[in-house]
Amino acid sequence: MVLPLNLLRTAQNQPMMVELKNGETYSGVLANCDTFMNLQMRDVICTSRDGDRFWKIAEVNIRGNNIKYLRLPDEVIDMVKEEQKKEARQAAKGRGRGRGRGAPAGRGRGEMKGFGGRGRG
Questions:
Q1: What are the chain's domains?
Q2: How does the record describe its quaternary structure (predicted)?
Q3: Among 34, 84, 98, 109, which is 20 to 30 Å from 62 by CA?
């Protein structure tokens, strides 16, 4: 499963098209995004909702809640999937054999602090 924010972070410096809820479209290069899906794009061509007017804009900020949909190159989706596989392989390696039943790390089999080395009884 590809999460939208992972997709956007991977799509940085890639061309994309954004359509807003009001019908305007923005085609350009994704410069940055944040956790609210706000986008910063550069070298943008803005098209009006009726499609008969165009503007060339050097840089634009798009608020995330105004986005209707995003169109990204297929290579970006493939890059995200490869990245997720790589992270899954790294997570599967684990951190060793564990620490037992919740005892503090680094005690080993020696005496427990505070018990003075006495036995059980």
A1: 4-78 (2.30.30.100)
A2: LSm subunits form a heteromer with a doughnut shape.
A3: 84
